[in-house]
């Protein structure tokens, strides 16, 4: 029997569903707003029970709850919890077999599954969109919802499409969940989903059990200090680093000294990552040395220590990462081995993502030249190579063009569809619904075969039988569901309408250039704000809470290095960027790069920015294309500040 609040109090329902006696701060208020029919934004610190807000509410709603989650690991952890409580939940994700995906879709269709978890990218799947449009949905939940804000610390352009998906699917309720949103980001998120300010629920950020310690450290001292900290603090520990190579190096050094440790980063395969995470969860492995790829899917309550071996990316990242410790409310340590040596690396990541003005011109030219009858088709990877813009900033520019009304997304499809028969295609005709009989017979004749795999000729089927691409795929998907054939697709192609009346090349170029410049300034300022925060001479816990809009944290926590009388002063070793010796070889590297580019790709403008990105090892699509990594100068100055390299390169180019 489904619970109804008219019959029993919420606390009783909480206990019978989840086994908890009481709600945590903010949970009940958020759930009550949702059940009263109001969309809500919940801003709770890491580990304080955000997920329960949607999990509880979903059991009280008549139809499906659709959850957007950024990580497969995060989905699987939440699914394990829900299933352990007898709540019917499932995910559709890339780790599943065809049979598993089909079982989930059947469960959603017949109403036995109450909660479905997907990534935002799933909306690009033609088949999923056709399927989900037929399903009544009560609530859309967006986890890590700060990803929708361009002012957030982890902006993901695909998230900007979520409000239009909500309208398209007529979903009445939205719940946004985040642990790290400043007031500005909260306003931005709420406005995009028309959430009223009174329906934003924010709980306190202050964690009385977390000891924050900032220790000035030079690069050569880091490993020794880390070992001392690990020896002083027993229990599960996470050590955060910036780069994959550092994760491996530090883990190897600790392992050689007898520590129970594993490295974790995005360069490892899914199975290896899952095994490392499982070993950490069951305490087989005590220490994980990780890039920020680790942690979002972790619900381990007894992490006693989080060490930042390198600088975090931002205050938001720092808050999220230290928030993974001490979720059981027991005392836990959060240590930063504070050094400015890694500052250039963080800033260089930002500079590497900013498109040059001629790259933006190239994008707009591609759109103009490739548009046929106001329709433009593109594949992201190919467009990235054509324009020399990395895929994430390229997605961001396309979303900006949408917001400027220059282009409108129409639909997306897979350019390459192929099939392989698994059963008797003639006998299967008897099982096809009557209204699809003619289509099925036409499709059988309209498939071109190469050995066992066949490809539907969509143009021929449309011209001869009037069958649209959607008609053909609907019939083939039905056959695939019945295990008569295997259907594969790749080459995701986005189709946009180009709005000629708003597509003025120079105006758009200026607007996009201004946008990417402002974004670069904002991201560099985010890093500078973090450095200023670490050097404050007043309570760190108090100021961290204030940064996220919580004015109620104590002014003196008594358990941070500032309250103990040790405000951080960065000890800067000899500034590598002030040395001139490195510039002696610069001319040779520039000459080598310019000659290579001219021979491999003569149309590419060789600018000071492109050369500086090459020298600091900031990967660009063109570098992969011309195999620039093989040159001796690639990444030779990756430790140095990009701006200092750019200045020196510009000087040399001006002198020649």
Protein described:
Keywords: ATP-binding, DNA-binding, Helicase, Hydrolase, Isomerase, Metal-binding, Nucleotide-binding. This protein has 26 helices and 18 strands. The chain has 656 residues and is α/β, with parallel strands linked by helices. The protein has a seven-stranded parallel sheet, with helices on both faces. The protein has a six-stranded parallel sheet with strand order 8-13-12-9-11-10, sandwiched between helices. A three-stranded antiparallel sheet has the order 14-18-15. Helix 11 links the parallel strand 10 and strand 11. The longest helix has 30 residues.
Question: What would you report as the Rg, rounded to the nearest angstrom?
Answer: 27 Å
Q: What is the share of helical residues? A: 40-55%
CATH architecture of the largest domain: 3-Layer(aba) Sandwich
The H-level CATH homologous superfamily of the largest domain, spelled out, is P-loop containing nucleotide triphosphate hydrolases
Q: Tell me what portion of residues adopts beta-strand conformation.
A: 15-25%
Q: What would the CATH topology of the largest domain be?
A: Rossmann fold
Amino- and carboxy-terminal Cα gap: 81 Å
Number of helices: 26
Largest sheet: 7 strands, parallel
Mean pLDDT: 91
Reading off the top of the CATH hierarchy, the class of the largest domain is best stated as Alpha Beta
Low-confidence regions = 1-7
Question: Strand order across the biggest sheet?
Answer: 3-4-2-5-6-1-7
Number of domains: 4
* Number of β-strand runs: 18
Tell me, briefly, the overall form: globular
Would you tell me the structural class of the helices and strands? Answer: alpha/beta
